[in-house]
Amino acid sequence: xxxxxxxxxxxxxxxxxxxxxxxxxxxxxxxxxxxxxxxxxxxxxxxxxxxxxxxxxxxxxxxxxxxxxxxxxxxxxxxxxxxxxxxxxxxxxxxxxxxxxxxxxxxxxxxxxxxxxxxxxxxxxxxxxxxxxxxxxxxxxxxxxxx
Length: 147
Description:
Shape: globular
Number of domains: 1
Largest sheet: 5 strands, mixed
Pfam families: Acetyltransf_1
CATH topology: Aminopeptidase
Keywords: Acyltransferase, Transferase
InterPro entries: Acyl_CoA_acyltransferase, GNAT_dom, YpeA/RimI_acetyltransf
CATH architecture: 3-Layer(aba) Sandwich
Helix content: 25-40%
Organism: Sporosarcina jeotgali
Number of strands: 5
Number of helices: 4
Structural class: alpha+beta
Protein name: GNAT family N-acetyltransferase
CATH class: Alpha Beta
CATH superfamily: Gcn5-related N-acetyltransferase (GNAT)
Strand order of the largest sheet: 1-2-3-4-5
């Protein structure tokens, strides 16, 4: 088992999974929206964004997207986890937890004061994030209107 920064080839492999990642990460919320125009490149708009991969026997089993964001209210840079994904056939083996902990350690080594992420209501990863000590900071609410 190895957790390390993704190679260019591995990054392209990761990006090929963007529809599944988007669907699962948003807990089905975006399935009603036409995703054909959505781009998998959005994470690269984060400062110094990259992927870390969990590899066993040469096979990428999961990844975590890490980068830096500028927090608007406090005017400080924070570590940011943009994506956590474990391929379905490798789930329930602690890979997601190991990837998150490695990302947190990387942010700690870089002297960030905190790490943020965004998680949709209904996303099963929320339980993992809470167990790791993440707490809710804000809540986005929506009201659907009649057409």
